[in-house]
Amino acid sequence: MGLLENKVAIVTGGGSGIGAASAKRFATEGAAVAVVDMRMKKAEATAAAINEAGGHAIAIEADVAQEADVARMVATTVEQLGGLHVLFNNAGTLRPGTAVELSVEDWDLVMAVNVRSVFLGAKYAVPIMEAQGGGSIINTASISGLHGDGGAICYAASKAAVINLTRALATDHSPNGVRVNAICPGTIQTPPVLRMMEEPGALERNVNAHSLGRLGFPEEIAAAAVWLASDESSFITGEHLVVDGGLRSQSPLGRLADPRPSHLR
Ligand SMILES: NC(=O)c1ccc[n+]([C@@H]2O[C@H](COP(=O)([O-])OP(=O)(O)OC[C@H]3O[C@@H](n4cnc5c(N)ncnc54)[C@H](O)[C@@H]3O)[C@@H](O)[C@H]2O)c1
User: Fold this and answer.
1) Ligand 1 centre from 4 Cα, in Å?
2) How far apart are CA 88 and CA 26, in angstroms?
3) Looking at the domain assignment, is residue 258 inside a domain?
4) Per-residue pLDDT tens for 207-239?
5) 124 belongs to the catalytic site
6) 233 lies in which domain range?
7) Residue 128 lies in a domain
8) Catalytic residue chosen out of the listed positions 26, 88, 124, 155
């Protein structure tokens, strides 16, 4: 018996990386999955892989920053899969830049894709979940929402907004059985990150920043998402779960030098 048996889930950004791994894992755990992405071919590939493996998935093309698309995404899911128990607001984007470098258009785009999407997802999913007696919404935030990553100020601001929006949504809707939580991944090996790791020194810097001495895999975020989606986390709401291989907890000093004189070590 899977953790998500008889549940219907939407996974946004399901065409790639964390979303694709999560859609597949949700299906393995018994959920019928709507794989949502603005790149339809990618969404279709994930849905096809799930169906070929014996699961049940549909693909939906939607831009999660657009209200009409999100409304259609939820309506199509309910119509074709018979309900909605889990919404994984995972699609996200990053535009690099300091305040001086970043354009206003890029600021607006990142805030719309990363933050407005979470608001819109809740706007359309919550009434259905509440009418059904409950549900679980999971939002992909980031370690960047917990500290001031330079060079991508809008990304950092948007992910901090996702964390606090998660808390506010939980305050409003948990009394009616809708739990809302966020996940803060460290550096995960997905296509955009692997491209970033091609910069000289980037891979070594990132590996060293994680206590586990490696980058994470999308499947390791999917495992956290399944748990938050399932009734196994039934008393958890308004939280952000850090899944970062020790990136945040690691001291910048690493191991402290041994203070004892050398003859006593
Ligand atoms: N990979 C990491 O290290 C990392 C770390 C922290 C947080 N995150 C977050 O995880 C989430 C997934 O990222 P990923 O690394 O798997 O990236 P990815 O590029 O592999 O997957 C993201 C998917 O989202 C889709 N997408 C982007 N904008 C969209 C939109 N407006 N509407 C619908 N679909 C859209 C893309 O087409 C893509 O398929 C993002 O929110 C990202 O910010 C990633």
Assistant:
1) 23
2) 10
3) no
4) 999 999 999 999 999 999 999 999 999 999 999
5) no
6) 8-244
7) yes
8) 155
Say if residues 158 and 212 touch (Cβ distance below 8 Å).
no
Specify whether the CB–CB gap between 220 and 177 falls below 8 A: no
pLDDT at 14 over 90: yes
**Per-residue pLDDT at 198 exceeds 90:** yes
Ligand 1 contact, 216 CB (< 6 A): no
- What is the count of structural domains for the chain? 1
In angstroms, what is the C-alpha Rg of the chain? 19
Contact 96 CB / ligand 1 (< 6 Å): no
Atom of ligand 1 nearest to the CA of 65: 31
Ligand 1 atom at minimal distance to the Cα of residue 218: 16
The enclosing domain of 231 has a CATH number of 3.40.50.720
**253 falls within a domain:** no
CB distance 92 to ligand 1 below 6 Å: yes
Ligand 1 atom showing the smallest separation from residue 188 Cα: 3
Mutating to test ligand 1, I would choose from 93, 184, 243 the residue with most ligand atoms within 8 A of its C-beta, which is 93
pLDDT tens, position by position, 34-91: 999 999 999 999 999 999 999 999 999 999 999 999 999 999 999 999 999 999 999 9
